[in-house]
Amino acid sequence: MASVSFDQLDGFIWMNGQFVKWPDAKIHVLTHGLHYASAVFEGERAYGGRIFKLREHTERLHRSAEILGFVIPYSVAEIEEACRELLLKQGFADAYVRPIAWRGSEQMGVSAQNNRINCAVAIWQWPSYFDPAQKLKGIRLDMAEWRRPDPRTAPSKSKAAGLYMICTLSKHAAESKGYADALMLDWRGQVAEATGANVFFVKDGALHTPTPDCFLDGITRRTVIGLAKRRGIDVSERAIMPEELDGFEQCFLSGTAAEVTPVAEIGPYRFEVGEITKALMNDYAAEVQPKQAAAE
């Protein structure tokens, strides 16, 4: 993580078709995306100079915007090219990539039909989402008080900025108690996800993961499912109740930022960093390298 404020990092940001110096990539205080959360974003990682599953991420960015009722004025191909050019311009081989699109400041109020749709991409170095030493032995999760909402009350299929407000609240509460993150239930009381990553459990040699019907079906999540099936591991996508946690042997998180991160503890429940978790960690690390990605 950067040791200086993120608005003062060096380099460039691609913004509305141009590369601007990092500190100069600014928006007005009355931007609609700031006041009403009309913004969508992606989180991607580059490994060895190649952005992993860039097409899938960029297509999801467009779908997320459409769900929020706006059209990004740059095609999938144009955003992909901006990401690749910016990665070269920043001079990073391994980095985190953040495309974002948002409604501008032309109209202020709940309605913003005529606002400009802006788009930007920033790239910075972000080695590990969790403390590396803690990650190897398994991180500790609290049980969040906030729950993922009913999809009839929020655009849960969009990677929309506003949906992360309760994630920030939950993660802050967990960190204040010494945990690394928090496990969130959904509005029905079923296990959902962590604050920024999907969750998997292992029991009797099989994987179990919640059905993503009110939260994102993560790109990393789908990658891990594919890797598990490649190993002949059964994968069950189903409703999981919190009382089932006592019967699971292993647990891990998956996400672009988290990658594959073992979990040793969720509230009162304990898990081992077992062989299946370790194997999928290694498989994912191999999958994201350019030589493997080129064969997809």
Q: What is the level-2 CATH architecture name of the largest domain?
A: Alpha-Beta Barrel
In helices, the fraction of residues equals 25-40%
Number of helices: 8
CATH topology category name of the largest domain: D-amino Acid Aminotransferase, Chain A, domain 2
H/E order of the elements? EEHEEEHHEEHEHEEEEHEEEEHH
Number of strands: 16
The CATH superfamily of the largest domain is identified as D-amino Acid Aminotransferase, subunit A, domain 2
How much of the sequence is in beta strands?
Answer: 25-35%
Q: Describe the biggest sheet?
A: 9 strands, mixed
Mean pLDDT over the residues: 95
Alpha-beta content class: alpha+beta
- Measured between the Cα atoms of the first and last residue, the distance is 30 Å
Shape label: globular
Q: What's the CATH class of the largest domain, please?
A: Alpha Beta
| Tally of individual domains | 2
Low-confidence stretches: 292-296
Radius of gyration: 19 Å
Written description of the protein model:
By secondary structure, the chain is of the alpha+beta class. It has two domains: 6-124, 2-Layer Sandwich (D-amino Acid Aminotransferase, Chain A, domain 1), CATH 3.30.470; 132-292, D-amino Acid Aminotransferase, subunit A, domain 2 (D-amino Acid Aminotransferase, Chain A, domain 2), CATH 3.20.10.10. The chain has eight helices and 16 strands. Strands 8, 9, 10, 11, 12, 13, 14, 15 and 16 form a nine-stranded mixed beta sheet that branches. Strands 1, 2, 3, 4, 5, 6 and 7 form a seven-stranded antiparallel beta sheet that branches. The radius of gyration is 19 Å and the shape is globular. The two termini are 30 Å apart. Residues 292-296 have low confidence and may be disordered.
